[in-house]
């Protein structure tokens, strides 16, 4: 008896290994573009543009966060309408002017404008690689798929943050660090244009065999479900937002805190890299572990671990203590990041899953803007450590909220829940 012939795309990591691996590489390049700013831009604001207030120095993160959050939302909708690959390419095209703008910016407004384009790049390109990997992986190994995706992106953030810190220490804040940015953009665009293939048909194949029939939801309905109506989706959205709120704090104010304590640019680069490095590597463990043990334990524990780590940053004043806090912050974030994305894809129907991911990422990356604004205002009024304490308290509250409201979404462990 012969095996049945499977027509059309097939789901699973093994059968799509080559394309999945390529998308992991592409997302690493997306993360590298982001990482090129994490060590350099805050010192640049102070030393070359003479920005005195913390809020002013954080304007670039605010611009980045608002733009990326909005672009995430449109990435999901556009990828459903026009396909994944065109959206991915649009994201890379938006990044093309960014290195030149950072290198030759005559005023701070140019830096802010470059971060608007960077937000578009990250929103379109990173969101689309997430959606494409979910398309390819199928339902069984989404935690592993998201762990690999986010690990690649944030390990690249870490490596590039360290590399640009070293380049800045040796060759100055401009142009050397941003030449690396330019290389990432050209390589990412080339790989996406020539080698990446469309994956929308994989989602359609999964939708055709899905157990529920609620594939025809409007974008407004998907927004409401993901934002507040559906307990697991909305819990994931708020946790993601608070997670990136504390990342916005780490990105914008930690370099100022470290510099005020007398740390060198190289040491600041190490600390800026350590947190996303642990975050990236940890996701290789937490993503697949959530396929076995469920999503909720990692989400709740991870948020509470981040709160403890932020408390450590607030009370520490030495390189070693900050390094230990950075490791814990990275571990907590690793527990949260891939499992939140996996929980969204567990609950959402394949017919509107890309839009649900877009709405989730809208809220999550809105945390960058909220974190920059909140941390900047509190730091101006009461100092950096007061800002860190404030964000630590919000992070703890977010973890407790997820514990109270969220149910387990993993299909092996969860009871039947409706999505409408």
Automatic annotation (TrEMBL):
Phosphoprotein listed as a keyword: no
Pfam families in alphabetical order: MFS_1 (PF07690)
Transport recorded as keyword: yes
Compartments where located: Cell membrane
Entry keyword set: Cell membrane, Membrane, Transmembrane, Transmembrane helix, Transport
Transmembrane segments: 12-34, 54-75, 87-104, 110-131, 151-170, 176-196, 249-278, 298-316, 323-342, 386-404
Name used for this protein in its record: MFS transporter
Domain Major facilitator superfamily (MFS) profile: 16-410
Lipid bilayer topology: Multi-pass membrane protein
Matches recorded under CDD domains: MFS_MdtG_SLC18_like (cd17325)
InterPro entries: MFS, MFS_dom, MFS_trans_sf, MFS_Transporters, Sugar_transporter_CS
PROSITE patterns: MFS, SUGAR_TRANSPORT_1
